[in-house]
Amino acid sequence: MPAPLSIIIPTLNAAADLPLCLEGLMAGLEAGLIREVIVVDGGSVDATARIAGAAGATLVESAPGRARQLIAGAAAARGEWLLFLHADTVLSRDWPERAAAHMGTRPGMAAAFTLKYRSDARAARRLEARANRRARWMGLPYGDQGLLISRALYDEIGGYTEVPLMEDVMIVRTLGKRRLVILNAEARTSAAKYERDGWRRRSWKNALLLTRFLMGAKPEDLARDYR
């Protein structure tokens, strides 16, 4: 019987982050959980494609746009379960145990991982604590936290919507809080944007964009303000 899980990673010039992301998946291979890793590339001009190929991943070429790439990856996937993962996110060593337990007991529910920033800054601890509270209380995890979902449930809710921003928020809102679990394993994501822009400035900007979206702003309008 084939392993159940297809992992889908959208990339665009991700050569600096992809090796660590792929390395974090090794525990899942050792556990016999992963059927395939699909890297959906949006036109990288760096070594992303070579890195994916050397790791044994299936490379799917796509027009750029994270939502578009996620949709393309899901279309190519053969697993009974899908794990959508950002290229700058590294899963903690215990992720296969947590994922397998979820897949075996909650087929009608999706899951995300607990957020952790790869930074020693105090601001990182404060921000991830707020984000994890939001994810658990409101059912609104960041896309950085990954999304583990059965193929059946993904198809039932219509999958990702092709929008230039907020595709991660849209799919978890469609799922609803009662069909979403936050797993104790960590999604350790890059803090580069926060370190570049400032933790407070970047977090407030993201919060403002989310608030505007929840109040009805169009993703196309929000995308122009997101960098």
Protein architecture, described:
This protein has 227 residues and is of the alpha/beta class. It has one domain (5-196): Alpha-Beta Complex (Spore Coat Polysaccharide Biosynthesis Protein SpsA, Chain A). Helix content is 45%, strand content 21%. It is built from eleven helices and eight strands. Strand 2 (34-41), helix 3 (48-54) and strand 3 (58-61) form a beta-alpha-beta unit.
What strand order characterises the main sheet?
3-2-1-4-7
Query: Which secondary-structure class do the elements indicate?
Result: alpha/beta
What is the CATH H-level superfamily?
A: Spore Coat Polysaccharide Biosynthesis Protein SpsA, Chain A
Helix amount, in percent?
40-55%
- The sequence of SSEs as H and E is EHHEHEHEEHEHEHHEHHH
The fold-level CATH name is Spore Coat Polysaccharide Biosynthesis Protein SpsA, Chain A
Number of domains: 1
Instruction: Output mean pLDDT.
Output: 96
CATH architecture label name: Alpha-Beta Complex
Question: Outline, from the CA principal axes?
Answer: globular
* Cα-atom radius of gyration: 16 Å
| Unreliable sequence segments | none
% residues in beta strands: 15-25%
Multimeric organization: single chain
What is the number of helices? 11
Biggest sheet descriptor: 5 strands, mixed
- Which CATH class? Alpha Beta
Number of strands: 8
Distance between the termini: 44 Å
Summarize the structure.
The protein has 227 residues and is an alpha/beta fold. It has eleven helices and eight strands.
Q: What is the topological layout?
A:
Layout: E1 5-11, H1 18-23, H2 26-30, E2 34-41, H3 48-54, E3 58-61, H4 66-76, E4 81-84, E5 89-91, H5 95-105, E6 110-117, H6 122-138, E7 147-150, H7 151-157, H8 167-175, E8 180-189, H9 192-197, H10 199-214, H11 219-225
Parallel strand pairs: 1-2, 1-4, 2-3, 6-8
Antiparallel strand pairs: 4-7, 5-8
